[in-house]
Design brief:
It is a single chain. This protein is mainly β and 284 residues long. It has three domains: 63 residues, no CATH class; 91 residues, Bacterial OB-fold (OB fold (Dihydrolipoamide Acetyltransferase, E2P)), CATH 2.40.50; 109 residues, Nucleic acid-binding proteins (OB fold (Dihydrolipoamide Acetyltransferase, E2P), Beta Barrel), CATH 2.40.50.140. The chain contains two helices and 19 strands. The strands form four sheets. The chain has a five-stranded mixed barrel with strand order 8-9-10-12-11. It has a five-stranded mixed beta barrel with strand order 14-15-16-18-17. A four-stranded antiparallel β-sheet has the order 3-4-5-6, with no helix packed on it. Strand 14 and strand 15 form a beta hairpin. The longest helix has 7 residues. The chain is globular.
């Protein structure tokens, strides 16, 4: 069964003429795909996990139960893990189940991240906050979406259906020096780019922990360096940027950005608690 974020007309199986004669009101409403209740003066719709939508409309003399069907939809490719999903080409409708959210609704504007419980791979999911209400760090989710690649060559799922199943212990970040961020390319042909000159396992999309001295700064970003190479940190989610010359420890999503033809390291902290000042001798 495909559970969708529904926009429905309260017309049941009756014609508009019958509705008018019976006193029904035609209204539009939406039911969140992760479950929720929408009610008005004479109708009630309830959506829950594993059930699209049921409800009723009443008049002075009639109680009419309503059920909604998502229609014919293509069957997604079921991927056992995020890496398997990333190995599929753009345009593939894919399903990944039981993944752990590493960012919450509102951490980023228009997207969030999930990763395997084993912390071996993660992926960006493009979704507006209204489509993932209640999503928290540690939420266990099923996601059905279409694979795509954004302008910075990061793989993502677009047009997703997100079902929040439960809440687990939030995953901890993987610690790594600056030079390890991004890693090498994944796949042949390349499905997920690593960073230019990078090597080792591709870790784009994973929650990571790194550290270093702030060596450069601009509007909405700083660069840190632990001596192994600079890493750009997006600071648009922070109330204040770390000062240039300071030492910081940073938790965030390992990402990348495209500069000309180079793929460069990028860290996306989720909020100010992900950036901690450190003494130079204890920057980690």
């Amino acid at each position: 069964m495909r559970i969708v974020s529904l926009t429905v007309l309260l017309i049941a199986a009756l014609s508009c003429a019958c509705l008018a004669q019976s006193g029904y009101q035609i209204s539009r409403c939406s039911v969140n795909c992760g479950g929720g209740l929408v009610a008005g003066g004479n109708y009630k719709l309830d959506s829950s996990i594993g059930q699209s939508a049921v409800g009723f409309v009443v008049t002075t003399s009639i109680l009419h139960w309503i059920g909604f069907w998502a229609g014919e939809v293509p069957a997604p490719v079921v991927a056992d893990n995020v890496t398997a999903a990333k190995m599929l080409p753009d345009g593939t409708l894919v399903s990944i189940a039981g993944r752990i959210a590493t960012s919450a609704v509102g951490d980023f504007a228009g997207f969030f991240y999930v990763e395997d419980p084993s912390r071996t791979s993660g992926i960006r999911v493009a979704a507006p906050p209204s489509g993932v209400a209640g999503l928290a760090r540690g939420s266990v989710v099923n996601v059905i979406g279409t694979l795509a690649t954004n302008a910075d060559d990061e793989r993502q799922l677009v047009g997703p259906i997100v079902i929040v199943l439960s809440t687990a212990q939030p995953l901890g970040p993987l610690g790594m020096p600056n030079r390890s961020l991004g890693g090498g390319d994944l796949g042949d042909p390349v499905r997920q780019h690593g960073v230019t000159g990078g090597s080792g396992l591709n870790n784009v999309g994973l929650l990571i922990h790194t550290w270093g001295r702030v060596v450069a700064a601009g509007t909405g970003w700083v660069q840190i360096d632990d001596g192994s190479g600079p890493v750009t940190v997006d600071t648009t989610t922070l109330a204040a940027q770390p000062e240039q010359g300071s030492y910081v420890s940073i938790v965030g999503i390992g990402s990348l950005y495209l500069s000309s033809t180079d793929h460069l390291r990028l860290v996306l902290p989720r909020n100010y608690t992900d950036v901690v000042p450190r003494h130079p001798l204890d920057a980690r």
